[in-house]
Write a structure and sequence with these properties.
Number of strands: 5
Radius of gyration: 16 Å
CATH superfamily: Histidine kinase-like ATPase, C-terminal domain
Distance between the termini: 31 Å
Shape: globular
Low-confidence stretches: 154-160
Mean pLDDT: 85
Strand order of the largest sheet: 1-2-3-5-4
Number of helices: 5
CATH class: Alpha Beta
């Protein structure tokens, strides 16, 4: 049996931002520069930017509790046609809890039966090709993956 060699993952960038509201814009700028050079289309880049903003805001607010001295780490990796952004905080929430959060229901929110908040992970899942959440001790990471070879306008599969 013949197997096709997969290219080794390549780190395109790694950086940290202080856990202060608004710093998601710094993350978006750096990720966008790498994504553009990696061949991500304009439409898919906008979706990724939205997902990066949401994940970074969650890391700042929920993970690191807006403590500016605790950084949000961002790593950008490309492996073949997969462009992955890893956003890590020190919140340590077990991955199962985040993955099992109740899906937002607009009618329930309008009726006051659900908090008006809670759209972040739902929105992120809809913006990227794949999302994974991992926890290693206190380090909580959201992995966002976009495929650079996906055709323009293609709907992504919901894989989470």
């Amino acid at each position: 049996m013949t197997s096709v060699a997969q290219p080794a993952p390549r780190r395109l960038d790694a950086f940290a931002v202080a856990s202060e509201p608004g710093n998601e814009r710094l993350a978006i700028t750096r990720v966008a520069a790498s994504a553009t050079s990696a061949g991500l289309s304009a439409q898919r880049l906008e979706r990724l930017k939205t997902a990066v903003a949401e994940a970074t805001m969650n890391a700042i607010e929920h993970g690191n509790k807006n403590h500016p001295e605790i950084p949000v780490d961002v790593e950008i990796i490309q492996s073949g046609d997969e462009f992955t952004v890893a956003i890590s905080d020190q919140g340590g929430q077990p991955a199962e809890q985040a993955a099992e959060a109740e899906a937002p229901d607009l009618a329930k929110k309008l009726d006051g039966l659900q908090s008006p908040r809670g759209w972040g992970l739902f929105l992120i899942r809809k913006m990227v090709d794949a999302m994974e959440i991992t926890t290693d001790g206190q380090r909580h990471t959201v992995w966002l993956t976009m495929r650079t070879g996906a055709p323009e306008g293609a709907e992504h599969d919901e894989q989470v």
